Prior knowledge:
four-stranded antiparallel β-sheet
Amino acid sequence: xxxxxxxxxxxxxxxxxxxxxxxxxxxxxxxxxxxxxxxxxxxxxxxxxxxxxxxxxxxxxxxxxxxxxxxxxxxxxxxxxxxxxxxxxxxxxxxxxxxxxxxxxxxxxxxxxxxxxxxxxxxxxxxxxxxxxxxxxxxxxxxxxxxxxxxxxxxxxxxxxxxxxxxxxxxxxxxxxxxxxxxxxxxxxxxxxxxxxxxxxxxxxxxxxxxxxxxxxxxxxxxxxxxxxxxxxxxxxx
Length: 238
Ligand SMILES: [Zn+2]
């Protein structure tokens, strides 16, 4: 059994019909889903399945499990039931804007300082990312904020492609994101390309162009030790 991951090809799909393929206590597996499961630094979606609130989404192997809030002990749908699903679009679109902003940040920092990212975390419209700086350059917060905002305002298109593994591992633009570390059995690699700025192997959901992000504001920079500096930022309307 394998869930068809609709969000990989259409990040803008927010309502979809599906069929229940497995059920356990308070969680439902569907044949197809547009609900993004927590992973790759992006938090899960919320929404409803047949009106039941979805409170958590996790991928276990090839199957996505949707935790639902069964109010007043209403029965879980049986296997084979057709259900109508709705993704909470306010939360999801904010996460898409945030995720794209972080790829722009990575691209800008790589182009300007050739420094790789070491970790990060995002919430809707806020995030932190760690980079291998030692120390941070003079005036860093203001410089990076204006460089990122210039790239967002440039309204670069974002393209998602599925490349054969052999093509992806030989793409010079993907080398810094360690595509060669992806397990050998993965034959097709999903690539998110902010055209002319940043190209990464990535499973997340992104907006169509950088203009849709808005602007970023750097809130704080912190040292997390030698060769590890943290940037906290928020995403605001343009
Ligand atoms: Zn990403």
